[in-house]
Design goal:
The complex is a heterodimer of chains A (80) and B (415). Chain A is mainly alpha-helical and 80 residues long. In chain A, 48% of the residues lie in helices and 0% in strands. Chain B is built from 16 helices and 14 strands. In chain B, a hairpin with a 7-residue loop joins β2 and β3. The chains are: A mainly alpha (80), B alpha/beta (415). Chains A and B meet through α2 of A and β6 of B. Bound molecules: pyridoxal-5'-phosphate.
Chain lengths: 80, 415
Amino acid sequence: MDEMKEVVKAYVIKEYVEDDTELTYDTPLISGGIVDSFSMVSLKRFLENKYNISIPDDKATPEAFDSVNKICVLVNEYLK
Amino acid sequence: MAYTDKTRGMYGDVLTGLKDAGLYKQERYIHSAQAADIEVEFPAGASLKKVINICANNYLGLSSHPEVVKAAHAGLDSHGYGMSSVRFICGTQDIHRTLEGMVTKFLGTEDTILFPSCMDANAGVFEAVLTKDDVMISDRLVHASIIDGIRLCSAMHDTFKHSDMEHLEEKLQLHNDKRLKCVITDGVFSMDGDTAKLDKMVELCEKYDALLFVDESHSSGFIGKTGRGTHEQYGVMGKIDIITTTFGKGLGGASGGCVSGRRELVEMCRQKARPYLFSNTIAPPVVAGVIKVLEILSASTDRRDKLEKNTAFWRQGLTEAGLIIKAGDTPIVPVMLFNAKLAQDVSRDLYEEGIYAIGFFFPVVPQGAARIRTQISAGHEIHHLEKALEAFRKVGKKYDILGKTKQEIIERYGM
Ligand SMILES: Cc1ncc(COP(=O)(O)O)c(C=O)c1O
């Protein structure tokens, strides 16, 4: 789980953070304006490719993607 | 439902909120035709003031050009005032098709379809040519009208960092399984005045088999050696699949827009694009005016050459005065002030000096990137620009920002 958190966090920073905003596992990503809801799709596709899972569109909500912690909870549900 | 006091109050609160947040927009009434010298009533009720306009999209100075005005008059006489119909019922005249052919030739594409505006072209084109099996990959700074068009389309949407070609390539790889990939960018970006790297983008689109869309609203008529646009400047004419542009800026400044590009894609718009199907196209006198504009620009490059000289003079003048401008070579020249209040104060003082230029700040540009956006025109003479430079020097001195670094300005005024 911790390794996954680091992977997801690193991806979010590389993709979306343009200055040196600090990011923790709980930083609100979408409601905090770091990830715009348009760009969520690449995050979803990244997770699906990386962990070889398929997240249904109706589960990939802005709420479920709103922090590194929440994203990892979601991914774990589909990791079997 | 009746419009109750409660409803009225609710909207009143929202509007007051906008005012309190400094986001309330106010119009300034111009009593003259659009030109370098205009007469402005501001605030409403104030007596008229003669000012030099350096914030219009009138890049080629054609908005009130006598030949264009004359052609519009003639079009009004020969083809009437309006069509009272959308294109496919009984709203298409010979001159609409003539203009489409001229735009195709001017931009070096295969075919063209007119829209009531470029906002409408951008709103309609994606939905007409893409489906849910496709993906749109857009630059993060594209114009608001493109964002709206993307929202209306069922294709997947992703973004790449502004002008970051490595990031774009990663996204093209990520979405390689889609039926169609469409890369979306502005040719010239309207807030920063920088140009998209179209040579590199064409290369990537060829490598990954993607379509390329470019909005040329701030380029058509003057970017490139003969003014055809950003694709001419980067040597990729004929290789852009979809171009949208407006007749509301450099190309006469009245109104109207178009989609120009691959024959089948234009045909898809004619069959399916909703703003084309459900809204009247450009009115006859305006069509006649735009035809004249394209004749003028095809016959000679004098106007874009003059604009290029004016732009170089203006950029050099501001730099020598010690102001910070965004580097580049387009006639969109942002003077960076970083702080929103400073941008508003400088704009107000410039107006006092007879120079009309507007401050832009969050949320139109990022926080801490407030600026005065200046736009140069072939309608400016050197004496206009000299007077404007003098005003910038005077106001810059008052706020003590001449020769100061970004750091020093932010330390003094805040972000
Ligand atoms: C890049 C860009 N695209 C489209 C438009 C819309 O043009 P029109 O006025 O024809 O709707 C604008 C105008 O602001 C623009 O700047």
